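Contributing new complexes? Match this layout with adenosine-5'-diphosphate.
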Amino acid sequence: MSSTNTPEKREFQAEVSQVLDIVINSLYTDKEIFVRELVSNASDALEKLRHTQLTEGEVYQSNLDMEIKIEVDEENKTVTIIDHGLGMTREELHENLGTIAHSGSKAFIKALEESQQKESPLIGQFGVGFYSAFMVAEEVRVTTRSWRPEGENLVWISDGKTGYEIEPAEGEVDRGCRIEMKLREDCEEFASDARIKQILENYSSFVSFPIMIGEDRVNKIEAIWRKKKTEVSDEEYNEFYKFSAKAFDEPRYRMHFSSEMPIEINALLFVPAENLELWGMGQMDPGVSLYCKNVLIDDKADGLLPEWLRFLRGVIDSADIPLNISRESMQDSSLVRKLNKVVTKRFLKFLASEAKDDVDKYKEFYGKFSRFLKEGAAVDFDHRESLSKLLRFESSMTEVGELTGFEDYLTRAKDGQDKIYYLTGADRAAIEGGPYLEALKSRGLEVIFFFDTIDEYLLQHLREFDGKQLVSAASSGLELEDDDNIETEGDALSEDDMSLLTEFLTGELGEKIENVSAGKRLVSSPAAVMTPQDGMTAQMRAMMQAMNPDEPLPPLKVDLEINPRHALIHQLSDARENNPELAKLVSVQLLDNALLAAGLLENRNDLVSRGFQLMEEAMKK
Ligand code: ADP
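Output block (do not edit by hand):
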């Protein structure tokens, strides 16, 4: 730790300057959010101190008041927010108040870049944490002393423009932070006790430490997750969500429950309105805090819930968790594992009933959060079954945009149908235009459509539902019953001609395909390629190529099915005898067309030049 008596000047990290520039110049009307942001930082620092005291034993000045004080100087136009929480060391000042660590602020910058709006109502949707002080202040002084015995008394000073300075603090400094804001001329309205009280009224009831203005205590303390559902209003729930998740949206779902067995739990969980991972922000941190009888144990409790539930926000409180459990030992704790299991199960049950009760609302949720459910169904064996019931998709029996699930699929399945059929593709049109669907459709079999990039990954792990195997309709192992609806009389090639033709095709195409056979499945297409059950689909190959652009892909493994009833196959059979050169050309083109339809054609040049050659042939007199 560097200790010096001369002021240390630094510039802000570029992202901080970007945020500050917007914060300072914003005409944003809800400037008052700075109170909420700073009080919530103070409250975090106090919660963390309480926990540090339990795990570390020794902290500097262990007997200070656990409260948040707000001092308003109407004459000098200053507002000061004081807490005796963790405080900060010199390094922490640089790291926390000179760079951006807070994911909300990162989201803010990102959204801002995307929206290209400089004057932005977006601030209100994100919250810029500590930096919001500069919405109202021309100068901010943070006087601080860390809880660590070796800490220094320091002042951090900035006008929010050029950078900041850190110097030794004069006089006595208590542990914690004292944040003094010299208000800008146009923000002097905040130099008023009454105004600050009014701002605090909205949400301060969730701050679990007394907030004092002078001698007055502004808030009563409530842990709403330990109250009965009937005692909490929708507004209170929503405000609590915003407070605890530092969010500015309204939650999409909330689940509040308590249980005594197998362990005592009070849980209040929220699904946010937006999925920030869809905004390209990288993986979210877990957002459910662990409490023991109202005392915060960990605000980003890793391992408290499965990773695929990282989108949840809220609180799990259990009186059975030892207060001094450390972050490291949490994941090994059998109590935490039990909590994890009970809460996850409850949440999945909750989602299942929501999916039934309000289909449209669930669909909207699914549109934004389905990736997490798919991720869970792929990786989490314990919850795979419940998760797969929550999956939704379009199918050959739904309208465009309408969704169905596996359970509904099975209610429509034919008697004795022991498989669930699916196709993957870029979109619905690509699947419907391909050669694979018709055979199943004409037999009255429903085919699920998977379009999402993560679906391939899901399907590698999710191999069955309710004891029925999931099978690709493009796989060569697919066995279908004879179909009475398909005209088979008369115009199929004779078996002899067929075997001569397959022999010919195997000779011509042998290097490119594994096997040629007469397909029962084709109706209007002359031919189609099928991928073996263990082969790679087009999407998987595209994914591999994207991940390793320089590595050649492993050779394709496909089977070719030809349709003995199709006119083109009849003509090809004739040409094999009468015009073998043309037959060779057509064979290769037939395969390339089939590969193209399957999304598996990797070299298009030959297809095009051969196409021209064939046109020429066709028009020869
Ligand atoms: P966030 O609180 O979301 O992380 P902020 O920009 O508000 O983002 O704060 C950045 C960091 O500064 C906090 O994570 C915390 O480590 C530190 N900090 C802010 N206020 C205080 C405070 N009153 N006491 C101790 N540390 C603080």
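Reviewers usually confirm one structural detail per submission. For this one: Residues 37, 41-42, 45, 83, 85-88, 96-97, 101-102, 104, 129-131, 177 surround adenosine-5'-diphosphate (CB under 6 Å).
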